[in-house]
């Protein structure tokens, strides 16, 4: 399945690199994601977050603590122009505020914020809305990578005062101490780590005003392009959602987007999907909603999703979910 949000290949590339040392072929980790070797060779490739999460789910199935390991390898240099803009900022606080300005370039699945608590400052990751089964993995990846970014910016470890996590302590919780080196609190009210707020004024060792200005401007332009593509995909999704019972087809959708079918196909390909894949995703999302309501008979759900026969819907749903519609119902 696909998703409206776009991201870079940073995390996927790191997953492949991490497991390569164990001799695991990349095909096993990329299975079901729709990402191919040609995509990995292009620095400007953008994928959907669901493609990224498919690869991560494959990794978690092999090693449950892989989120912490991946996070510790997500150095600031992995973020391209944004990474250089952060490194050349005047102070640590300037760099963090710049990072928060461009969450799309960070590729985060969370709402990031800095929250004052007396003399402490909490770097918080909240509002997670992706696959619930991967929430703990993503929390681990996010906070561990943010800690590494902070260390890279300062060219020394940022001393932490505490770290807290909404989930229960996993059986590998001893590994958390390797990442955060501070008092740990599980089943907390937020996912965050704290440090002395005086660090915000710390000058960065690689600060360079000229380079920073150039990189910050390039980040601004890249963010506009990135968010523009997100908005474009969002518009397509809105059009299809309104027409699930009578999908317009590629030609019809292109006309509604005021472009040619060839242009639409090319743009969708660049986004890592096709018309049919996007339509299937939206049908699957709506099917799950209607099945959860329980009062809808399956033949009516099939009609609402544009299937001419109930059997065709059943076959499609099994392909999407692995179970029949009747088995999916609560």
TrEMBL record:
SUPFAM superfamilies hit by this protein: Homeodomain-like
Protein name: AraC family transcriptional regulator
Ranges for domain HTH araC/xylS-type: 234-330
Keyword flag Protein transport: no
Cellular compartments per GO CC: cytosol
UniProt key word DNA-binding: yes
Database matches in PROSITE patterns: HTH_ARAC_FAMILY_2
Keywords from the named record: DNA-binding, Transcription, Transcription regulation
UniProt-listed InterPro entries: AraC-type_N, Homeodomain-like_sf, HTH_AraC
GO molecular function, one term: DNA-binding transcription factor activity
Family annotation (SMART domains): HTH_ARAC
């Amino acid at each position: 399945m696909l998703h409206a949000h776009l991201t870079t290949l940073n995390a996927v590339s790191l997953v492949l690199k991490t497991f390569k040392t164990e001799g695991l072929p990349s095909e096993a980790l990329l299975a079901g994601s729709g990402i191919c070797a040609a995509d990995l060779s292009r620095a400007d490739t953008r994928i959907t977050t669901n493609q990224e999460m498919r690869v991560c789910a494959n990794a978690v199935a092999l090693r449950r603590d892989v989120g912490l390991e991946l996070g510790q390898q997500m150095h600031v240099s992995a973020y391209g122009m944004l990474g250089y803009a952060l490194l050349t900022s005047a102070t640590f606080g300037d760099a963090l505020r710049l990072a928060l300005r461009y969450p799309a370039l960070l590729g985060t699945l969370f709402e990031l914020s800095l929250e004052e608590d007396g003399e402490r400052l909490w770097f918080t990751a909240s509002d997670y809305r992706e696959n619930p089964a991967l929430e703990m993995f993503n929390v681990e990846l996010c906070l561990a990578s943010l800690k590494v970014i902070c260390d890279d910016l300062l060219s020394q470890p940022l001393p932490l005062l505490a770290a807290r996590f909404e989930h229960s302590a996993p059986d590998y919780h001893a590994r958390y101490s390797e990442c955060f080196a501070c008092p740990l609190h599980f089943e907390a009210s937020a996912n965050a780590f704290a440090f002395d707020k005086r660090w915000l004024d710390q000058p960065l060792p690689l600060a360079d005003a000229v380079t920073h200005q150039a990189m910050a401007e390039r980040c601004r332009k890249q963010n506009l392009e990135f968010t523009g593509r997100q908005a474009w995909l969002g518009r397509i999704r809105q059009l299809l959602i309104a027409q699930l019972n009578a999908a317009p087809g590629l030609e019809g959708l292109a006309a509604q987007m005021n472009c040619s079918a060839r242009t639409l196909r090319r743009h969708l390909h660049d986004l890592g999907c096709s018309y049919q894949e996007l339509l299937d995703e939206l049908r699957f999302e709506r099917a799950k909603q209607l099945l959860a309501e329980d009062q809808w008979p399956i033949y009516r759900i099939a009609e609402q999703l544009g299937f001419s026969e109930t059997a065709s819907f059943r076959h499609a749903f099994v392909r999407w979910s692995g179970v029949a519609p009747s088995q999916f119902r609560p």
